[in-house]
Amino acid sequence: MFQQIILVGNLGSDPEMRYTASGVPVTNFNLAVNKRRTTPEGVTQEKTTWFRISLWRRSAEVASQYLTKGAKIMVIGEIESARPWTDRDGNLQASIEVTANQFQFLDSRNGHVNGAAAEHAATAEVAVATDDPDIPF
Q1: Other Cβ atoms closer than 10 A to 34
Q2: How many CB atoms lie within 10 A of CB 94?
C-alpha cells in the first residue's frame, strides 16, 4: 500500500529541532494550508487547515537552519494520524500529523530564505529527496 500527500502552505511557527535518544535529528512545525473560494453572492471565504509536519535526518537539519515562521513551502509526505484538540472558543478541531519525505522552498525572495542560503538550501533539499532509503523509487 502507498499513500502520499502534497501540501503547499506557510509555517505557523519557527521549526523546532531535537534529537532522538539514538542521535537522529527530527524537526517539527505547523503548516497552514489555506483554501479560498468565492460564493455565488461574491463573498470570498477562506478556510485554513493545519498540519503538524515532522522531518527527519538531513531534511530536519536543513529545515531547522533555513525555515522561519511564515515561509511558504511545499511538503510531500504521508499522513500518520489525526489528533483532536479544542480551540479557544471550545470548538473541536483536528491536527493532522504528516511525516514529510521531502520539502521545497517556495518563497526565497521574501526574506525567509535568501541569496546564497537559498541556493545552498535548495541544493541540500535535492540531496535529501534523493538520498532517503525509505523512498520506494
Answers
A1: 11
A2: 12
Domains of the chain: 5-131 (2.40.50.140)
Contact assessment for residue 102 and residue 125, using Cβ atoms and an 8 Å cutoff: yes
Please choose, from the candidates 17, 105, 14, the residue with its C-alpha nearest in 3D space to the C-alpha of residue 56.
Answer: 17
Q: How far apart (Å, rounded) are the C-alpha atoms in residues 16 and 36?
A: 29
The residues with which 49 forms a beta bridge, in sequence order, are 33
Span 24-51, pLDDT tens digits: 999 999 999 998 888 889 888 888 888 9
Confidence of residue 2 (pLDDT cuts 50, 70, 90): confident
CA distance 126 to 118: 12
Round the CA-based radius of gyration of the chain to a whole number and report it: 16
The yes-or-no verdict on residue 116 having pLDDT over 80 is: no
Residue written as cell 521549526?
15
**How confident is the model at residue 86, as a pLDDT?**
85
Query: What is the average pLDDT value for the chain, to the nearest integer?
Result: 80
CA distance 90 to 40: 30
